[in-house]
Design brief:
Length: 242
Amino acid sequence: MSNPRFRRVLLKLSGEALMGDRQFGIDSAMLDFVAGEIASVRQLDVELSVVVGGGNIYRGLAAAERGVDRVTGDYMGMLATVINSMALQDCLEQNNIDTRVMTAFNMEAIAEPYIRRRAVRHLEKSRVIILAAGTGNPYFTTDTAAALRAMEIEAEVLLKATKVDGVYDSDPVTNPDAKRFDTISYGDVLNKGLKVMDSTATALCMDNNIPIIVFDLHVKGNIRRVIEGERIGSIVQAGEQV
């Protein structure tokens, strides 16, 4: 067994990551892939927590643009994250991974309420915890929820698994000349308006010195490689601004 660089990790997955090639909802093949990647990480005896977005089902901000009350839309988006979390839990348990879903507001029939001490205890007992329903408050994204929970459980790193292989100075999908950063400071991310995480999440990580590693989820083994310390993707951390 290898010696991982990080022992307590928070993994942030977007809801869109679970769509695969679909336009909406959850792709079972992609869900199986993500569960397999997490199962591989558990072989390292790493304490792992996961925050999943809900954009594959519902986006509160997008709904607000169509006339839905913003607060109502955000709560609907939080419920979408619970659906994704339950789906991931089921898939992980089929891979013999002991898992708990914890929600930011009470849904006792299907999940535990998030209590910091209980969450840490689950981690210490080698359970994967999936933290659903964001922060439990409207106007906050699941990126911010991931940063907040990372601080609360004293995670060593926040892993942002996404569809690109790092942080770029512009959108690499539309700009073939976009430059990828191996390392970049929190300040540069904020000042340049780079789309790593929302500004609140980035500022929280900066204030509490939690590094953010952005990498491509779709490459098999990447989550494990990052945790083992291999340089993959981009790292956002304290440092001189460029």
